[in-house]
Amino acid sequence: MPPHEGLAHLEEYDWRDSNVTLINSDIDHKVKHQSASTEPAWNTGVIGREPGLFIWRIEAFEVVPWPQGEYGSFHEGDSYIVLKSERVKKAAGEPGGDEDEDKLVHEIFFWLGNHTSQDEAGTAAYKTVELDEFLHGTAIQHRELQSAPSDAFCALFPRLKILRGGVRSGFTHIETNEEPAHTDTLLRVFKHPSAGAGRDSIFVHEVEPTWQSLDEDDVFVLDKGDKIFVWQGKNCAPMEKLKAAQVVNDMTIAKHVEVEVLSQAESRSKVVVDYLGGSEIGPLETRFKSPRPVSSATAREAKKLFRLSDSEGQLSFSLAKEGNGIEMNDLNGNDVFLLDSGNTIWVWEGRGASRAEKAMWLKVVQRYIAQQGDAAGVSFAKVSQGNEGRAFVAALQA
Asked: Cellular component GO terms, alphabetically (predicted)?
């Protein structure tokens, strides 16, 4: 019997209690490479050979391709793997061929919804490492939390759409082959709160269809099945209005329904509040405020660089440098380094790092984050020497 059969209950995932701490340990590279060579999701003849954006969802411990028409849409009950491959020019003096040649640079993101199960999250993390093995260990690996996505992840999509539910895992089940009975849907449209995100980085997040979900700083789209209302908060941005119009256009391509756009300042906007259960609310006198479901990690202190090394015969983790003067020259290719840039934690793995150093990076990151009271929602990423990418270099130079 497969080890996952017979499970009676799937617990929600909490990354602080991660079950993936054996990644890069004695479950050796040979095992992962063998597994990767038989994974249908990677062996398409395209992955690792052609540039592009590729997304998979974890379903019943399997890596299932996500439809391209749904790229940018994620369910909060699921875990996903996202691969971004792009061609870049080789740097001067870089080994492996003519420096004028292009090379493929890969970034892998494993995205964890707020209500994903422990098994889905563990599978996504393990398969991320396996995909990196398939790509010869050159990929940048990112862990992404729904509640605090990184700028790098947001930059992949002009519009991120977060929906409730997910695959069968004890939460709302999404029936893909059946037409579900309509229930009112309320979507919140807002700009990503991080100043570092792209100017056009807009979130579309499904929220509880109640008047308490409204916020006067954003735009909301209420889909009642036979009619769609757009409620524009009095302080919403023009970009949010534009993106809301695009959302409505997408929703009405397959069905012809009436659409009504209402400004919060209009007395007519009370109809939306009424539909959302606020018939006793005076919309012109009420201040609508609701915490955004997505936050940005705040820069905490000066940057810090830590060194993980066993050069003296015993594995040690120590502060190597602090402040904004950290440079690439401060990294030693014989060790592993942790860079806390303030809003992202980076792990840099030197080519000559020992097996013990490489095996410990994830445990060290988890322990470090657990000790930082203000770092719970910080994203982390791992890079290898020679495959750092622009985001890591920018984090050093910031």
From this structure: actin cytoskeleton; cytoplasm
CA distance 315 to 334: 13
Give the model confidence (pLDDT) of 240-254 as tens digits.
999 999 999 988 887
Q: Kindly give the pairing relationship between strand 202-207 and strand 159-163.
A: parallel
Question: Distance from CA of residue 233 to its chain's centroid?
Answer: 27
Q: What is the pLDDT of residue 173?
A: 41
Q: Give the Cα-Cα-Cα angle 120, 126, 132 (nearest 5 degrees).
A: 135
The listed CATH number (3.30.565.10, 1.10.3720.10, 3.40.20.10, 3.40.50.1980) that belongs to domain 181-191+209-295: 3.40.20.10
Fold topology of 1-175: Severin (3.40.20)
Residue with tokens 């090394």: 309
Nearest-angstrom CA–CA distance, 294 and 120: 21
Which value, in Å, is the radius of gyration of the alpha carbons in the chain? 23
Beta-strand relationship, 79-89 and 336-340: unpaired
Nearest-angstrom CA–CA distance, 128 and 381: 12
Two tokens, residue 227:
């009619």
- Backbone angle region of 115, left / alpha / beta, with phi > 0 → left and psi within -120 to 50 → alpha: alpha
CATH 3.40.20.10 domain range(s) in the chain: 1-175, 181-191+209-295, 297-398
Q: How far is CA 70 from CA 10, 94, 198, in A?
A: 26, 38, 21
Place of tokens 């109809």: 271
pLDDT digits (tens, 9 = 90+) for 155-171: 898 888 999 988 754 34
State which CATH number among 3.90.1300.10, 3.40.20.10, 3.40.50.300, 1.10.150.130 fits the domain covering 297-398: 3.40.20.10
